Amino acid sequence: MADMAFGIDIGGSGVKGAPVDLGTGELTAERVRLPTPLPATPKAVARTAAKLLESFGDTAGLPVGITVPSVVTHGITRSAANIDKKWIDCAAEDLLADVLGRPVSLLNDADAAGLAESCYGAAKGQPGLVIVTTLGTGIGTAMIYDGVLMPNSELGHLEIDGFDAEARAAASARTKEDLSWPAYGKRLQRYYQTLELLFTPDLIVVGGGISRNSDKFLPYLNLSTPIVPAQLRNQAGIIGAARYAATHRL
Asked: What is the pLDDT of residue 249?
């Protein structure tokens, strides 16, 4: 594995990136953030990613990993969340490589966050099955077994009590419905209880911006599985993308 790699995290509002020390998981330079172009078509986003990478000067030789809010199979984006629908069934990895002028490794944004937490954060050294969830506009998930990522789990779309899970348990649902923390805790209890029943994980990690308020909702959960807040917060996508770029082609 390389000692350094570059991670780029494509989101609905911003494209963020930085070089990463793969030994420590720390950014080796201040993160740069550029606005996600509108419309967020693959070519427009690729140009923004190229501009971001160029702003760091000479990065030749560094593997480049890129996250996208989409299911990704064999470099092809199969869905589009908060980005343009032209990403659906787009050969995005090849397109990004062409625009950036170098090979890139593409993965789902929640998978990148999960990989980062497994390698450097709240799930570091945890054997068995770890499920990382990102609570935001929707619910992103990553499944890691003995340190190996099982991509594109999409467990935010489980049907629970007749609802798409994220419609009831995402952070956006709490805001939209003005739920109290105890009421939101009940929603999360039902969601995580279902994950526990279906997968019997060894650890659950709660990420997303709302994780900074984990002390306000985790006490309302009663699970058999240990559940902890994520540690890497808004840097997790960058760090996970860099790690993936350095390892997945081996």
From this structure: 58
